[in-house]
């Protein structure tokens, strides 16, 4: 990854041509993707997916400009722009949407301020922090000593007896 300063003085993070990134990126400033990325990208600013870029990612940013290929959901809190060379497969939620002639898109789209609020609520509901934690089994759940062998027919017979009772 590299960075460069834009006219406003903030640094732009760049995933260059030939570079590959896999994971989660959280940025305060703008980003340009010219290579390949897989995972999630969250930016308080603009994310630009360049021509020839390959993204298998969920992208959440104030503004998203797509010239390359994206497979994943896009949440643009202010504006989403699909330029003529863009190819998007996934769901879109944007406050405003601009689609140029020649752009391709397969998925569902929601546009307007309410669409963004709904998508943000959906993201929070499905975030790992919101998922219930697994708890270890207690009591008789693990009463076997480990020396017993169970065959699939034993399990089926036990279930059939339980269901018949």
Describe this structure in words.
- The chain is an alpha/beta fold and 165 residues long.
- It has one domain.
- The protein is 16% helix and 45% strand.
- Strands 1, 2, 3, 4, 5, 6, 7, 8, 9, 10, 11, 12 and 13 form a 13-stranded mixed β-sheet that branches.
- The radius of gyration is 23 Å and the shape is globular.
SSE layout and pairings?
Layout: E1 2-5, E2 11-15, E3 20-27, E4 31-33, E5 36-49, E6 54-66, E7 69-71, E8 74-82, E9 87-89, E10 92-94, E11 97-99, E12 104-106, E13 109-111, H1 113-125, H2 152-164
Parallel strand pairs: 2-4, 3-5, 4-5, 5-6, 6-7, 6-8, 7-9, 8-10, 8-11, 9-12, 10-13
Antiparallel strand pairs: 1-2
Residue stretches low in confidence (pLDDT < 50, at least 5 long) are 130-165
The number of helices is 2
Order of helices and strands: EEEEEEEEEEEEEHH
Q: How large is the share of residues in beta strands?
A: 35-45%
* Total of domains: 1
Q: What can be said about the biggest beta sheet?
A: 13 strands, mixed
Report how far apart the termini are.
63 Å
Q: What Rg do the Cα atoms give?
A: 23 Å
What class would the helix/strand composition place it in?
alpha/beta
Report the mean per-residue pLDDT as an integer.
81
The number of strands is 13
Which term fits the overall shape?
Answer: globular
DSSP helix fraction: 10-25%
Explain briefly what this protein structure is.
The protein has 165 residues and is of the alpha/beta class.
């Amino acid at each position: 990854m590299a960075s460069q300063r834009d006219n406003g003085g903030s640094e732009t993070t760049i995933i260059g041509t030939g570079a590959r990134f896999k994971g989660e990126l959280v940025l305060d400033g703008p980003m340009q993707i010219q290579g390949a990325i897989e995972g999630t990208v969250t930016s308080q600013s603009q994310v630009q997916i360049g021509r020839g870029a390959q993204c298998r990612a969920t992208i959440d940013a104030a503004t998203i400009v797509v010239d390359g290929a994206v497979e994943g959901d896009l949440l643009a809190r202010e504006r989403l722009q699909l330029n003529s060379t863009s190819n998007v497969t996934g769901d879109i939620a944007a406050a405003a949407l601009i689609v140029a002639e020649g752009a391709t898109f397969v998925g569902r789209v929601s546009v307007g301020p309410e669409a963004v609020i709904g998508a943000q609520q959906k993201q929070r509901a499905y975030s790992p922090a919101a998922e219930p934690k697994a708890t270890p089994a207690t009591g008789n759940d693990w009463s076997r000593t480990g020396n017993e062998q169970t065959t699939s027919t034993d399990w089926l017979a036990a279930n059939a007896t339980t269901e018949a009772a």
